[in-house]
Amino acid sequence: MTTPVVGIDIGGTKTAAALVDRAGRVLERREAPTPARSGPEAVLDAAARLAADLLGATTGPVGVGTAGTVDPATGGIRYATDSLPGWTGTPVADALAARLGRGVRVTNDVNAAALGECWAGAGQDRADVLLVAVGTGLGGAIVRHGRVEAGARGAAGEVGHLPAPGAERLRCGCGRYGHLEAIASGSGLAAAYLIETGAHVTGRTVAQRAAAGDGVAQRVVERAGAVLGAALAGLVALLDPDAVLVAGGAAGSLLPSASAAYSAEVPAGWAAVPLLPATLGADAVVVGAARLAID
């Protein structure tokens, strides 16, 4: 069977759908803003419209990577943040199957990104991979032999809620303080910079200012990267992967200091496990969602 498949990426800001061939290459892509404030039905309608435009060239199921924790048994959303209001409890698999007239498989967007990277990106030819996605928040996923480790609640690999030194005054997206996401993420960079300077800017702006030579921004970025790298070194000893991949919009700014801390902290028995940048960029979720559909 060589026909392409459709993968969908539902995020709080944008939704994308792509036609992906059996080698993991994106053939066509559609994208639109996510109508998050209009509620789950509008979000599902938008995703279905994008996918329907690509389905004529395909057979078989559609794959979806979405924000939120996904119940692996039902394809519904167990928990989601306010980036998609009302998304918790949405039966994504069933609702999209009804709209598209074919089966739908659903996983968390970071899980999908990990599947994509292991299929057609930086994790190719590696059996066991830990991927960490550093964006506005901090997500994680574990892939073993081409399959996502879901855990009992579909949330295995969520590294963002590990306790982290230096984050005690920083609020995590879950509402608590002191977690890794609260320091090693776009929102964490913004919060730390605010404490240091009183300036309200985005995490992206902090990274840009660091690159331009702003000393405070450089300290914030270097501290966040060092904490992330040390945490990943500990996780390597716990999970024993073949490689650790770092993806997401904030990955580039944190990787230099994260790599240095990782090399310094990783136990000797795991010194050969590389810390690598992911390579698929914005296509990772749709490619991984397509892989999910194939599997």
Automatic annotation (TrEMBL):
UniProt xrefs under Gene3D superfamilies: 3.30.420.40
Entry-linked InterPro entries: ATPase_NBD, ROK, ROK_cs
Pfam families for this protein: ROK
TM helices/strands, residue ranges: none
UniProt record similarity statement: Belongs to the ROK (NagC/XylR) family.
Protein's UniProt name: ROK family protein
Taxonomic source organism: Micromonospora orduensis
